[in-house]
Known about the structure:
Blueprint: H1 12-23, E1 27-28, E2 31-32, H2 55-61, E3 66-74, H3 80-90, H4 92-95, E4 102-108, E5 111-119, H5 128-143, E6 147-149, E7 152-154, E8 161-162, H6 164-180, H7 193-199, E9 204-213, H8 218-227, H9 229-236, E10 242-250, E11 255-265
Parallel strand pairs: 8-10
Antiparallel strand pairs: 1-2, 3-5, 4-5, 6-7, 9-11, 10-11
Helix pairs in contact: 1-3, 5-8, 6-7
Amino acid sequence: MATAASQGAPEPALLALINAYRAQPQRCGNLSGPLPPLDSPPALSRVRLGTGAFIELALERAGYPVEHASAVFITGAADASAAMAVLRDKYCRQMLSPHFTAMGAIRDGDNWQILFAEPLRPIPLPEPAESSATALAAVNAARAAPRLCGERLFAPAPPLTLNPALTQAALAHSRDMATLHYFSHQARDGSYVADRALRSGYAWRAVGENIASGVNTAGDAVAGWLESPGHCANIMNPAFTEMGVAYSLNTGRRLMYWTQVFGAPR
């Protein structure tokens, strides 16, 4: 007859032993205690890993996304004390890792699956107005001096100003990319930056666009654009007098999308 533990219930006895171990001064290679106690979220005591399973993916599917995780499998341990003896002997690095803040265990007779994990940290989202100001300052600092964009040398250009309509066009495209999981200057509705600027109420004489993904701050986005000849040329283009910039986060993939729209009004 299966016990509650073999059906996937947490093992509080083992958790208590591990936390008592972490609470005492310990050494394991370059790791040492004492450390705070581990939490025991139910998801970590429900997920059974098959052969060759990707731990992070399995936990994400179970509704517990993690920064990273480690699995320990123990056989022949009749109780929590016996399992703890194996952990002390062979897996002290997992128990004393300062990165792990949670654990869960599943017992099936004498066989144990123990998961150590650090839950996914939220991406800190910058204030939109602060991001716009940061991007504008970085762009104008770049435009204030001569700059080589690839093989093309640009002279200094006058500073840009922020335009709300261009910011709205940038936000619309960033949201579309984040929502529909793509990365392109052409939106899924077939539009390009010229169309999106007009939709936002910006009657343009000149218009351009930079996009980026995988960076979390406006400063990093501008730095990346300046390293790319085409994006750099947009930043240094003296024909542009205004800009807008905005981001959107794809929460599932934890990926931020940035759009920068340049313009000169009619």
